Protein 1
Amino acid sequence: MRHVFPCPLRWSDMDAFGHVNNVVFLRYLEEARIDFMFRLARQADSESFTGGSVVASHEITYVKPLKHRPEPVTVEMWVTRIGAASLTVAYEVRDRAGEGSTVYVRASTVVVPYDLEKERPRRLTDAERAFLKEYLDDSATGVGAA
């Protein structure tokens, strides 16, 4: 299963070349990830990811320029790896949900659950692991995929 997040484009997202700036795509990914971890995960279990999380790395492939438009883009997001103390999510930023729509970006992010009080990484809880498994698809990495 994939998390589908409609993300509005803002006029300020454009750069001098008239398309969405490359760094803005990281914000789109962040918005989808926040919705996934702080809304969906907490709906599934009120304690999921409440201790915090940090980004360990991003990998992003820009497939096609995106020009500003009034319609939102769709960020599809899924889990590609669940470790003991980290997870990897993949994304596609596209026109609309589903195959056949234009893909602008493919990306992945390694996320580490973090204990804010102790200021150090922590292991995934059983509830977090169960939630993530619903979105697990390790056959499609998101980056560089055709």
Protein 2
Amino acid sequence: MLLYKQKKSQGPKGNRLLISVTVLGSAGPIRFVVNEEELVAAVIDTALKSYAREGRLPVLGSNLNDFLLYCPSAGSDALSPWETIGSQGARNFMLCKKPRTEKVKDDGKAAESINRKASGNWKAWFNKSLNLKISSH
């Protein structure tokens, strides 16, 4: 009889979640299991390591401070690296590189603070990409 076998208790660690992390420009999402109390920064680190281990393109690098994690169902703001992944109540996330900032020009005037190509949020980039693909066919 299988009734005598009980699942191990999770204890204070909380529930485990299967999440999907989509990397902009990559073929498909990365899926892995995390603890709902895991910090967003640790989830970004795990996603980058999984992405590299699978040999996916484009090559992203491994510095988790260069990336932002978004929850598409929660709006266009990036998640704080110090909040828990379970606080959003979501299972699908989007990983994006942080926009690069340009250096100050020699004459003392500030250059554009964000590269034009990288400005805006991930939704704007995604919509622009769709429009380019549609118009090129």
Protein 3
Amino acid sequence: MNGTTTLWRPTGPEELTLVEASGWTAWPPRLPEQPIFYPVLNEDYAVRIARDWNVPASGAGYVTRFEVDTAFLERYPVRQTGGETILELWVPAEELPEFNRHIAGRIEVVREFHSPTG
């Protein structure tokens, strides 16, 4: 590999359980209503999604960090979906198995948030 790029992924407890089952090396297949897998390019954006979306939806939100082969990522243009730090990659669901093969090392949980009542 010529180098890796750090990506983050906000996730809820169900998806995190599937990542753990993979040995922390792969993202699970998308559900039919999820045509895109979107890792994000900065931790702050991932924190906001995990805290503000995942916690209300499922009682917990996690921020994961992982490395992907930089050359492979060049096929996915960076999408700015809001403010200047709201940056994502859009990986079509059918390309996720190949994306997973380009993850270097393990997916790690770097932050977690829980509902005060959960």
Protein 4
Amino acid sequence: MNQTASKKAEEFGFHAGDIVQEWLWDDDVDDSIREKIENLTGEELVDEDYDSAVDGVILWWRDGDDEDELSDTIVDAYAVLGEDGPLWVLTPKPGRPGAASSIVVQNAAKTAGMNAAMPLTVSDDWNGIHLRAFGKGR
């Protein structure tokens, strides 16, 4: 049973009714991922200006963006995330414009006090890396 998160949005760890915050949206994001999350949760994604607690986060990251900025953004996103809510960094897959090395994401996550899982294919053009605070869960 090796389905990608794009085919089974539940693999992101979001649930019906969850408020999911989206960081660093740009016109290159995969709208099918956004749509599947919204269909699963029944809620529209909220942007980084949303000022209440959220149940999950997706953060779009591309090569050429500053690694220190990624660490800071992870810290900011985690600050509004409810306890144990999923936090995902989405990056273009290798060979795609803006493809970011998973090492960059892992280093930024470590700086932010998080563990980074192995990349998961979430669409034809994007990978997702699930982050967890040190000492939290699997």
